[in-house]
Amino acid sequence: MKILEQIKSWNRYDFTGAAAKMTGRDVEHALSAERVDEQGLLALLSPAARDYFEPMAVKARDITLRHFGRTIQLYIPLYLANYCSNSCTYCGFSAKNKIGRSKLTMDEIEGNAAEIAKTGMKHILILTGESRAESPPEYIIDAVKILRKYFVSVSIEVYPMETDEYRMLKDAGVDGLTIYQETYDPGVYSEVHPAGKKRDYAYRLGTPARGAEAGFRWVNIGALYGLAEPAKESFMSALHAKYLQNKYIDTEISLSLPRMNEAEGGYHAKYTLDDRDYVKTMLAFRIFLPRAGITLSTRERAEFRDRLLPLGITRISAGSMTTVGGYDVQSADVPQFEVSDCRSVDEVVKAIAENGYEPVFQDWVAI
Ligand code: SF4
Fold this sequence. Notes:
This protein is α/β, with parallel strands linked by helices. It is built from 15 helices and nine strands. The chain has helices at residues 3-12, 15-21, 24-32, 38-45, 53-68, 106-117, 137-147, 163-172, 186-192, 201-205, 207-214, 230-247, 275-288, 302-308, 345-354, and strands spanning 71-79, 123-127, 153-157, 174-178, 218-222, 252-256, 293-296, 315-317, 358-360.
């Protein structure tokens, strides 16, 4: 079955009703299972699981140690541009917002790269906003060629592309793709994406698969928490990740759990994923998907990020700026979202080590 049909069938499922019927026994059953199935995932995300934090944390920690050891890989984002042709109601970069727009020149990209490289960072994630006209694939490819001189891993979070375009980017040196569905609820999706190419729910949903098809080493997906019912979003994200894992066995599939922050658009989150449920969701992801990476950004507060380290996180950002450039000279641009963990790379590295984990700047070498 294609992913769109699967998602449609999961969307018809009365998730909230089924989750409310889950009991402590269902959670215990999931925790004792060798492999957790969809019913087990439902139990781990259900209100009943709130009484099982301790055993869930122990199991998640053990699984993570078995599959990833005591390592946390570091990355840093670099915004190349903030032009966008979409009008997401929750984002500061929406085409409707009257903000200053800019795009880095190749010289400016090199300047930012040189400055970031001084921190020791080896993995960089580049973002452009979603304007194909302003940031065409050729622009991204030229940027990647410069960045590869400074970083062993360059990944992208840009507008969805065709498989052949992703192949071109891969040939230029891109190894990973981040693409969020934002919300798996088609009704909410239409509401919050009123204009632009992003209105096409199905096209976006098929994007991680096109990236895996093109041969990216890793593909990172997720929902933006705040738009729709959080537990259902978690259920759908995890099933989407499982589908991709089963279909693209050579690609590392990972999940992020971004929570909405203050944005220029003035959007107020309709749903809240509180800290406790955030942790529960992360534990459920780890138990359901033992091999999946879990990425944590600076959207979350420093002390909260530190507490999550032993529970399943495998990749963490540090020293992040969410304006265009800003690493070599201060940017006057509006950030896409407010960063909550403002620590430097050194401070994050120190915190990881103090928690008994090894901060990893470089986990592979391209041949
Ligand atoms: S979320 Fe992405 S696509 Fe939507 S307005 Fe912001 S930058 Fe553009």
